[in-house]
Design a protein that fits this description.
- The protein contains 10 helices and 9 strands.
- 39% of the residues lie in helices and 20% in strands.
- The protein is an alpha/beta fold.
- The chain folds into 2 domains: 179 residues, 3-Layer(aba) Sandwich (Rossmann fold), CATH 3.40.50; 85 residues, Pantoate--beta-alanine Ligase, Chain: A,domain 2 (2-Layer Sandwich).
- Strand 3, helix 3 and strand 4 form a beta-alpha-beta unit.
- The mean pLDDT is 96.
- Bound molecules: adenosine monophosphate (AMP).
- The site of adenosine monophosphate has 17 residues, from helix 2 and strand 5.
Amino acid sequence: MSAILLNHIDEVKSDIKQWKNDNLKIGLVPTMGALHSGHASLIKKAKSMCDRVVVSVFVNPVQFGPNEDYDKYPRTIEKDKHLCDELGADIVFAPSAKEMYGENVKLSNTDLTFVCPPYNYIDCMCGKSRPGHFDGVATVVTKLFNIVQPDFAFFGQKDAQQLFIIKKMVKDLNMNLEIIPCPIVRETDGLALSSRNSYLSLDERKSALSISKALFEIEKLYKNGVTDTSILFDSAIAHLDKKIELEYLEFRNFDTFQKVDEISKNTLTAIAVKIGKTRLIDNIILR
Ligand code: AMP
């Protein structure tokens, strides 16, 4: 059966109301579209746990900075809908920015109620180079939760900081759902799937491969007993292609989000880089 494509909040709410009346378990997979196998893995997981699955496809203007790629972000709704059909999603919710934020709103926190994650969670990693990004993410995710009222929402570990922030928000604000983290899906050569990979030229794609290579090198050294993060940092950097500009490579406790100097079990090793104009992130969890 094919999914229904809905563009309006009221239409979604009315289906959700019916599903709630029928006591069905609802799963939400929030995305920005240009769906790939990483997104597909989230939808499959949602299908395995829920009676009904909503996939949202929304390039959220509020989470992009003024010099970022909001305008050029790939928009492939027909293909996305097709994949959602194949995977058995029930609703593809693809609202316009106007539907989500209204006509006259200037999309700043002088006009709009924002959900602001705690400073300690945003003043680091991606939050440092993308001021306001996680306020935008937390705000749109809260809106989606309010519209869809899911029992479960599915997020990829690929966006590790986002996952931390959403889990924290759900806990701190007593939101009535469970967040289900899903592992990173990679190309066969190791590159983490990302909608932004489509920006890469062939040459840049080759350079990008060194991101996962650097992370796998850290994993190998860790398995051989190296736990000092400064040694791991240096060896990873040596594996990065010369054309890559490093934004950060950080080691954090995967449960507390605290920075660590020595790896213990469950350490998130996260990297962000720029290749030409394209910004990419990746991570591994050392267990
Ligand atoms: P995006 O469309 O990039 O906002 O991503 C939507 C969701 O898909 C987020 O929860 C991401 O973490 C997740 N996601 C993106 N890429 C991957 C991947 N390669 N593997 C698993 N999940 C992913």
